[in-house]
Amino acid sequence: MRFTPHTEEDRREMLRQIGASSVEELFSDLPEAVRLDRPLHLPEGLSESEVAQLLADLAAQDLDMGRHVSFLGAGAYDRYIPSVVGEMLRRSEFYTAYTPYQPEISQGTLQAIFEFQSLIAALTDLDIAQASLYDGATAVAEAAMLAWGQTGRERIVVARSVDPQYRAVLRTYAHGRGLEVVELPLRDGRAAAEDVTAVAEGAACVIVQHPNFFGLLEDVDSMVKATHAAGALYIAVSDPISLAVLRPPGAYGADVAVGEGQALGIAPSFGGPFLGFMAARQEYLRRLPGRIVGETADKDGKKGYVLTFQTREQHIRREKATSNICTNQGLMALSATIYTTLLGPEGLRQAAALSIEGAHVLGDGLGRVAGADLAFSGPYAFEVAVRSRAKVADVEAAMLKAGMLGPLDLERFYPELPGYMLLSVTEKRTTEEIGRLLDVLQGVEA
Amino acid sequence: MKTIFEEHAPGRGTEYLPSRKVDLGAFLPAAEIRKELPLPELSEVQAVRHFTGLSRRNYGVDNGFYPLGSCTMKYNPKINEDTARLPGFAQVHPYQSEETVQGALRLMWELQQDLAEITGMDAVSLQPAAGAHGELTGILIVRAYHEAKGDAERTQVIVPDSAHGTNPATAAMAGFEVVHVPSDERGGVDVEALRLLASEKTAALMLTNPNTLGVFDERITEIAEIIHAAGGLLYYDGANLNAVLGHSRPGDMGFDIVHLNLHKTFSTPHGGGGPGAGPVGVKAHLKDFLPMPLVTNEQGHFHLSYDLPHSIGQMRSFYGNFGILVRAYTYIRALGGAGLREVSDDAVLNANYVLSLIKDHFDLPFDRIPKHEFVVAPPEDLVRQKGVKTLDIAKRLLDFDFHPPTVYFPLIVHEAMMIEPTETETKETLQGFAEILCRIIDEGRENPDYVKSAPHNTVVGRLDEARAVKQPKLLERLGG
Predict the structure, then answer these.
(1) Chain A residue closest in CA terms to B168
(2) pLDDT given for residue B479 in this prediction
(3) Are residues A227 and A166 in the same domain?
(4) Would you call A32 an interface residue with chain B, using a CB distance cutoff of 8 Å?
(5) B48 in contact with A at a CB cutoff of 8 Å?
(6) How do residues B80-118 score in pLDDT, each as one tens digit?
């Protein structure tokens, strides 16, 4: 299958116009030593019908969350996505466009990003937001770099209750800049303000996720206080759905808010493409990484949008840029904008509320399961951390047999938590499905 | 057009979820519950019309010719969109157990192999989310490699003055000092200058080949020898790979590390600014430094392997922009090896064709056979006497429903205009574009003010970028 339109006659005419005898002649400046003197070892090309079948066969080897009941979450969620989202995303004026370098013919993308920035600022209750980052993990890492740039301090403090994927990426980025990463230990599944005070002196920032990786509410007020007392920036990590019902980062004193936007209308897609977001207080505007869209006007006073404050960025500032990010997750930001617009405040609240209720149906139901208990005390949402007497691998096998996906084995990321597992509930899970899960848990032999 | 905030009316929202009433107070402390949520409410029809309206104020490859140099805006096949949305790919959770995702893992493993073959590398990581992210991955590998050898003195990364801005920005992010090597009069790396710059401090040289001028650096073997002799590594920025598929491979040119832009060479759509994907390939001696995890194949069983003792770690959550990987895989399977080589044949043919049609109307900073793209500048008399600049020509092109080329890049060419037609365009489209471009030059001489005030047919005119900074309005709130 080819997408090149030329006939042999076209090629001949074009070569005549160029003044070359063959296409090969156009490659004559490639030195012999670097030429590939054999065909690429790849399978033969296929027709569209063949390639469609090949991909359908591959996809059929996977178990998907349409046919299986998923209790997996931990940073990637199986949420209901209204039909409109997919329909609008397939408008190719959006998805076949490049970064909006020519604003006069890119007002669609630019206004959508402006609206995305507005929605993120509203959800986080902060002053400004940028156009998107690769995912929640890199958003955390970029926020740490922002704090380093702002304070000149080389220690990054992060709670161990932050998503392990995010902490892993943070360590990779920090190593590049030669920064030290210090973790706040788990205290009953949470971070503690005393631990912040102990290490925050001389730190650029303190990074706390709320609700945290285990779904637990953190004591954010006392940690913000301890962070600011040390002159560090407080970086809040949050799930945007949780922001519909919980006090937002701006309200409890965060300087920067970041997170994973996948929950806002983006399919799980085996982990990507996802959507990183970042919002901040006004004073950090010139330190933000990536694109920012602003409103302006043309000479007739007609409203329009442009990429702005570009002197932060790599194509202008080169090695002095705030980040090297160029291509980001534009279409995913559009997806989040459409989803949030459709659901509105009531829909987002309902998505959050049904999920929290479901998590508690599960959490409370553990009371009738002999071999499983809630792992930690205190309020929780979205995720249910469970201590299991049966092996987690056995639980997983039993769930799979019952047509369910999950749980996440926490020992994989927390060696200190053997036999602990994470189950997640979204608004898609019914009370009946949760009941079936409890039956399965009851049936696993310890 | 109105924003979603201006279209808001309380109570307009549509019900997408079960309406069962939940008492949050039963689960959360009252003090933690949010009171105000100032988000807009639109009916479904309003929302559909709003976003459809926005799409009509946009221009993509499906609207017309998009010769944006360095960005490879080729046609994005629609089958790719269908395959990426198959439930077995789109509705799969990244924490599912390996036995439940064998299809996805096989696809990734095969893609790793294919990209290694295409680039002449030994191992590939699919994790990086975009080109610049791939660069950061590659340069962190450079850092880890020298660290593993106990070679802490290698603090410099050499970057040509014609390089993409992401190259120096990446080197700085990985903690390196950036050293610039000039271009010579042929548009390639000034090899004598490079000889003087390469030293025991050199960690790596970052290079694009063909470079940002669209010319192939035929002294590449010599360049590789200089860097390797100094103990440094050679990094290939794959932004221009579309020029040499099946003709020449970075691995055979002497490069140690390469990143690819799947959203350029491998036809995945750019999405108005992502998502892309920026896989990184390395030679065997650097395999252990790749980010985790890699997909491995043990007798037909596919695994996510974390067994990389020297790995730089993880570059993002999970395994990459998987949905983009599915699209690129679909494209490679559709074309096959011969099809990929033909892509480069026609990409180079098309660039040379457009150049041949317009060269009498423009200045050519480097008169060489271009590869997939080329750089020209408007004639000096037009710029000097009439004040018609590259930006004006770009804006006038909008009136003819063409996306303009990349402008003012590379930085080493005054008033640069970088044209990359790609292989998917017909001869007639290319001719039409060339004619209009030449006509605009003539028009600039006859009626410069009309060109300077372009565009005349777009939904907004030239926007005041200075005002966007001086009176910043970066978001809107409900109620203004």
Answers:
(1) A319
(2) 80
(3) yes
(4) no
(5) yes
(6) 999 999 999 999 999 999 999 999 999 999 999 999 999
SS3 A44: strand
**What part of B 266-325 touches A (C-beta under 8 Å)?**
267, 269-276, 291, 312-324
Contact B34 A102 (CB under 8 A): no
Residues of chain A contacting residue B345, judged by C-beta atoms under 8 Å apart: 23
Q: Which of A61, A296, A314 sits opposite B165 (nearest CB)?
A: A314
The answer to whether residues A179 and A224 belong to one domain is: yes
| Domain tally, chain A | 2
What is the nearest CA distance from B14 to chain A, expressed in angstroms? 7
Q: What are the residue ranges in chain A where pLDDT is below 70? A: none
Report the CATH number at residue A298: 3.40.640.10
* Distance between CA atoms of residues A148 and A142, nearest Å: 10
Cβ contact A104–B107 (<8 Å): no
Residues B430/B350, Cβ–Cβ less than 8 Å: yes
Q: Which of A338, A372, A405 is the last residue in one of the domains? A: A338
Distance to chain B for A197, nearest Cα, Å: 23
The one-character DSSP state at A267 is -
Query: A5, B218: Cβ pair inside 8 Å?
Result: no
* Number of other CB atoms surrounding residue A282 within 10 Å: 10
The closest of B325, B319, B280 to B144, measured between CA atoms, is: B280
B353/A14 CB distance under 8 A: yes
Q: What is the dihedral of CA B123, B126, B130, B135, to 10 degrees?
A: -30
Q: Which helix (H) or strand (E) holds A165?
A: helix A164-177
Place of tokens 């209790």: A71
A66 to B87: CB separation less than 8 angstroms, yes or no: yes
Which pLDDT tens digit goes with each residue over A89-131?
Answer: 999 999 999 999 999 999 999 999 999 999 999 999 999 999 9
Is there a domain that residue A42 lies in? no
Which residues in chain A touch residue B71, judged by CB atoms under 8 angstroms apart? Answer: 98
- Chain A residues with CB under 8 Å of B27 CB are 356-357, 360, 379, 381
The residue among A446, A437, A443, A344 whose CA lies nearest residue A72 is A437
A6 contacts B28? CB cut-off 8 A: no
Domains, chain B: 79-335 (3.40.640.10), 342-466 (3.90.1150.10)
> Cα–Cα distances in Å, from A287 out to A129, A151, A177, A284, B451?
12, 11, 16, 5, 37
Kindly indicate the confidence band of residue B480, based on its pLDDT and cuts at 50, 70 and 90.
low
CATH number for the domain harbouring residue A353: 3.90.1150.10
Cβ within 8 Å of residue B364, ≥6 positions away: B376
CB A76 within 8 A of CB B91: no
Tokens of A414: 């927390």
Quick check: A127 and A266 in contact, CB under 8 A? Answer: no
Distance of CA B89 to the CA centre of its chain: 24
Give the HSE-up count for residue A257: Cα atoms under 13 Å, Cβ half-sphere. 29
Distances (CA, A) of B476 to A77, A255, B133: 28, 20, 31
> Å from B97 to nearest chain A CA?
8
pLDDT digits (tens, 9 = 90+) for B454-468: 999 999 999 999 999
Are residue A125 and residue A264 in the same domain, yes or no? yes
Alpha-carbon distance of A107 to B463, in angstroms, equals 11
Is A104–B271 a contact, with Cβ atoms under 8 angstroms apart?
A: no
Reported pTM: 0.98
Answer whether B133 sits within 8 Å of A325, measured CB to CB.
yes
Q: Are A345 and B196 in contact (CB under 8 A)?
A: no
Domain hosting residue A123, numbered range: 84-338
Is this complex's ipTM strictly greater than 0.85? Answer: yes
At residue B188 the predicted structure's pLDDT band, cuts being 50, 70 and 90, is very high
Judge: A408–B136 Cβ closer than 8 Å, yes or no. Answer: no
End-to-end CA distance of chain A: 55
